[in-house]
């Protein structure tokens, strides 16, 4: 579904993503893991058009999307959540999802809020799209509550609904389980599985190894911007280069997995897979 070839971006002297060739197959869950600063979020920023690559190509559903702008990428069927999603706590859950819809389609945030001029006629369409997205994440009954009244997990679901409201084929989730407790994490995993069962393709960046190992069909491992492994959870968890990358970053105080040492986390995950 999505193919990247020799993808790279430099920030001054720093190669945040370098020569990455990888694919995200349709109908699967692909996890992107790697120590902090490995280039995971940057990889998503490249795919979603937030950053322009300094080298390489991105193909989606057979089309070259390398130079497209964010809204053009969205219209092709790629949506994303952010590591920290901005939720308007005073607005209703539905209004938040509608803003997601309109920001991701053609109207700006101001238009969405003010509903001026020709934008007015699109409100119903946005409302329908947003409501459908809320139904998919299990928030239909909470649509009229203020978003700030939801639990942490509920607010994460709003963030996912905001992305789903453009009805994407590929959904990119950047650390969806951050800040969640184990029970919420399990619920989130179930939601992601449901979405994929419904035909969505998902790629996610995640630190929680239990989630990654229990959910992903394939894992792409980045380290210093480069791909060091790609394979099933079982393959990746016993890959010497991966173990080395995680141990190395642990030795230097980097964050990996959760609070447990990476080796343990990886082995535990491997046993799960
Ligand atoms: N806009 C930017 N300008 C300069 N450096 C950046 C920018 N975005 C990311 N980086 C750098 O690129 C590297 C990879 O960052 P990031 O993709 O956020 O890592 P990860 O998500 O894997 O933790 C880091 O060294 C980060 O500081
Ligand atoms: Mg990141």
UniProtKB/TrEMBL annotation:
Residues 252-273 are annotated as: Disordered. GO terms for biological process: D-alanine transmembrane transport; L-alanine transport; L-isoleucine import across plasma membrane; L-valine import across plasma membrane. It comes from the Bacteria. It holds the Pfam family ABC_tran. Residues 257-267 have a biased composition (Polar residues). It comes from Deinococcus indicus. Keywords: ATP-binding, Nucleotide-binding, Transport. One of its GO terms (molecular function) is ATP hydrolysis activity. Residues 2-249 form the ABC transporter domain. SMART domains: AAA. PANTHER family: AMINO ACID ABC TRANSPORTER ATP-BINDING PROTEIN, CONSERVED COMPONENT OF ABC TRANSPORTER FOR NATURAL AMINO ACIDS-RELATED. The lineage of its organism: Bacteria, Thermotogati, Deinococcota, Deinococci, Deinococcales. This is High-affinity branched-chain amino acid ABC transporter ATP-binding protein LivG. One of its GO terms (cellular component) is plasma membrane. The keyword ATP-binding applies.
């Amino acid at each position: 579904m999505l193919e990247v070839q020799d993808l790279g971006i430099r920030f001054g002297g720093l190669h945040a993503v370098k020569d990455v060739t990888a694919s995200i197959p349709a109908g699967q869950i692909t996890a992107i893991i790697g120590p902090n600063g490995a280039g995971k979020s940057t990889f998503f920023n490249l795919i979603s058009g937030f950053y322009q690559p300094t080298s390489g190509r991105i193909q989606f559903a057979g089309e070259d999307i390398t130079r497209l702008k964010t809204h053009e990428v969205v219209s092709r069927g790629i949506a994303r959540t952010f590591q920290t999603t901005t939720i308007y706590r005073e607005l209703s859950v539905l209004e938040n999802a509608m803003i997601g819809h309109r920001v991701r389609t053609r109207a700006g945030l101001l238009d969405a809020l003010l509903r001026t001029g020709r934008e007015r006629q699109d409100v119903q369409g946005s409302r329908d799209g947003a409501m459908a997205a809320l139904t998919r994440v299990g928030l239909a009954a909470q649509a009229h509550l203020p978003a700030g009244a939801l639990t942490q997990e509920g607010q994460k679901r709003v963030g996912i609904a905001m992305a789903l409201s453009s009805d994407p084929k590929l959904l990119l989730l950047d650390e969806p389980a951050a800040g969640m407790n184990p029970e919420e994490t399990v619920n989130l995993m179930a939601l992601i599985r449901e979405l994929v069962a419904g035909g969505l393709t998902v790629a996610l960046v995640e630190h929680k190894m239990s989630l990654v190992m229990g959910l992903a069909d394939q894992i792409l491992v980045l380290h210093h911007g480069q791909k060091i492994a790609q394979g099933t959870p079982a393959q990746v968890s016993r890959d010497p280069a991966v173990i080395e990358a995680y141990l190395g970053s642990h030795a230097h105080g980097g964050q990996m997995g959760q609070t447990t040492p990476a080796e343990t986390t990886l082995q535990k995950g491997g046993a799960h897979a």
